[in-house]
Amino acid sequence: MAIISASILAADLTNLKGEVERVRPHIDEIHLDVMDGHFVPNLTFGYPMCEALRTFTDMPIDAHLMVTNPDELVEGFVQKGANRITIHQETCYHLHRSVERIKSLGAQAFVALNPATSLSTLDEILPYVDGVLVMTVNPGFSGQKFIATMNDKIERLARIRSDKGYNFKIAVDGGVGNENALMLVSLGVDILVMGFGVFRNPNLPQLRERLK
Ligand code: DX5
Ligand code: ZN
What is the pTM of this model? Predict the structure, then answer.
């Protein structure tokens, strides 16, 4: 079954704890979008937010690092309770070293790809990753429109996985909701990251049932 990872960027942040408790029965993980105002044109959460989430939830937390210096932040997020660290291919000079370090800290290592970055840039790292996050919007904001040409990229990634016998998970992030979630799962997606699709979706319970 594909799982739902809830991006709190789309929650009502004046009531974060209440928001997470409200959607809790219908989600599997928390997705924490860490943005630095350099790699992406928005500035969001840091260690204190990860720590705050840990005070009221024991769900897995994925720290999606949209920052120019991810290597400097990895250890801190693991210490604050993140179970998975997602780093961008575009920000790592030594991606293999970065991935191996995340795993050595006891967290899952996922690598994210921007929409315009070719899948071929991951050829050499795929044997080492726990997952690939295919960005289906340009990172920076919740509530953007899904880029439909990413479907082909996801299909190719799923084909490489089965051809080579790899075990990594495929995640998608951006513009995912009621209209496209099941189609994405049929292409091979395991983890649906959703902001609006979770926190601003009156049909979330039905969507979760359909995914089951
Ligand atoms: C975009 C973030 C996403 C975003 C998803 O840069 O990485 O996680 O919050 O939000 P939706 O699902 O609303 O597009
Ligand atoms: Zn994200």
Answer: 0.98
